[in-house]
Amino acid sequence: MTNDCIPGHSAPDKQAQQMGLTEQGLQRLRDTADTAVPHRYDWYVLEAYNTPEEAFINGLSLEAAIRRYTASESASKRLGVTKDDIAAVDLVFLQEGREWLSRDRLRLDSFRTDAVVAEAADRLRRMLNDSPAVGRVTFVSGEQWNFTDGQKYLQTIREELPYQSTTGFRFETLTDAPEIRKAADDLICDLYGEENPQRLEDYGRSGLVMHGLGQASGTISLTLVTGTGSCPLALPASDERLEEVRSFLGLEDFAEAAIRDIRFSVPQLTDLIPLDTITAEDANALALCLQEMEQEELLTFCAALEAEQPEAFSKALAIAMDVDDYEIVPEDAEEYGRQVLRRIGADDEIIDTIDGFMDFAGLGEVFMEEDCLRQTSFGPVRRLSRPFPQQESGMQML
After folding, report:
1. Left, alpha or beta for 59 (phi > 0: left; psi -120 to 50: alpha)?
2. The pTM is what?
3. At what angle do helices 360-371 and 333-343 cross, to 10 degrees?
4. What integer pLDDT is reported at residue 60 of this predicted model?
5. Alpha-carbon span 137 to 100, nearest angstrom
């Protein structure tokens, strides 16, 4: 029922409606739009419509109609209201895995300015927001669709996403099902000609697969989440790509979005970098630094992070930008002594010549203490510009 009509009948056009009503009936219909007089409201639920099992339950209060609608397991159902026994409109639909609050009431004189129906619509909107759903999509018009069918949800994203710049289309995946979450993110990546950096197994857990540094390049992937949608982002990204994502999510500033599912190609960084203060801009800057690092520099960066224990993401970024100020050194005192000699200009020929006459281990022990080395799980690390403080809580010194 999408027009003012006699309940239980299909919605006719205006001319047919006038032909089917007496002048008295037409006046009654016009009176339903009068906000200065009281009106009578009967709420109804229609289940399994257009099937042999169709059931029309009317004469309900709004509370009773909501209870009946939410309890119904019918795959096709509607909740609506009849006003003064002559005008009716469907408010909520569930059909083919899609559930939505209809805007038909705003097109009808009998309901457009009705405060009772407007208040009911707000309540029904909250009901839909709280109801289980695979995903939700919205449009700039104010329309919102909830989906109980994962494939219908993905199909809608696939069909609507190319037109999001004009329709204001946004989507939010609500299910925890890895297949649906990844497929939705894949569609976003496809739109921008990128490959989703996240694997299916990544969607099934909040942590990362812990493996060695290997030959992984330093990059970051994350998901930006707003109240109306989400978008995966592989970093580093160009300014143009960042602008596309910002525009897609309808953001004035990236600070308006929450950051979720943060993953590093060097997984050890997850435990070394504080993520609660991350920003999209700092994450992109760090990804640029990581991308330029060789494997030895990545290892040094990890050691420096463990030694410095930064309290904010921005501090970790500063360490990455100044990674040349750190070096991983030998743990053996004798070898450290040899490295000290190399540091002051001695070459291997000189070191070999004095071998047997020089206490390399003693020299190494002295300079280890003077350089205030910090022990880390990646090896001892030294700060070149100035030694680490002699005593600092929570740090192990050699």
Report:
1. left
2. 0.49
3. 80
4. 96
5. 10
Consecutive sets of 10 residues in the chain, 398 residues long: mean pLDDT of each?
A: 42 43 82 93 94 94 96 94 94 94 92 94 90 86 88 93 82 87 86 75 46 42 83 86 86 92 84 94 94 87 94 96 90 74 75 74 72 85 85 47
Alpha carbon distance 207, 96 (integer Å): 35
**What are the residues facing 223 on neighbouring strands?**
232, 260
Cα atoms in the 13 Å half-sphere on the side-chain side of 238 = 5
Token duo for residue 342: 């190399």
| Residue 257: alpha-carbon gap to chain centroid | 8
Q: What backbone phi and psi angles, to 5 degrees, belong to 144? A: -140, 130
- The continuous run of DSSP H or E covering 173 comes out as strand 170-173
**Burial of 99 per CB tally in 10 Å (0-12, 13-18, 19+):** buried
At 47, the amino acid letter reads E
Separation of alpha carbons 80 and 44, rounded Å: 5
Indicate the residue type of 175.
T
Query: Where does 293-359 have alpha helices with state H?
Result: 295-308, 313-321, 333-343, 348-354
What does the pLDDT read at residue 202? Answer: 67
Could you give the angle at the alpha carbon of 166 between the alpha carbons of 171 and 246, nearest 5°? 55
CB burial class (10 A; 0-12, 13-18, 19+) of residue 247?
Answer: exposed
Q: What is the pLDDT of residue 255?
A: 93
Residue 46, token pair as written in the block: 């229609």
Question: In whole angstroms, what separates CA 350 from the centre of its chain?
Answer: 60
Q: Which H or E run includes 327?
A: strand 326-328
Measured distance CA(381)–CA(41) in Å, rounded: 76
| DSSP code of residue 358 | S
Q: How far apart are CA 382 and CA 398, in angstroms?
A: 11
Assigned token pair, 250: 């309808």
Q: Answer yes or no: are the C-beta atoms of 328 and 303 closer than 8 Å.
A: yes
